[in-house]
Write a structure and sequence with these properties.
Layout lengths: L6 E8 L1 H13 L4 E5 L10 E7 L3 H10 L5
Antiparallel strand pairs: 1-3, 2-3
Amino acid sequence: MKKAAHWTVIHMTRGQVRAEEILQVLQAEGFMARMQQMSRAMSGEENDFEILCLQSEAQEAHQLLIERGLLL
């Protein structure tokens, strides 16, 4: 039986462009990452986004964002 992946929020940011920038850095480093819009009623740049990674990679991915100066 296949085990379901557990996703963990490692960061929240405002704006789709910023979220995509963070997501690209994580994916370029080989992390399984995705972003999730918080509200469907708001446009991309006014909205907040969650950046999620697999639970098993969350701590390492968060550390990478710190090292790259991407967390504000």
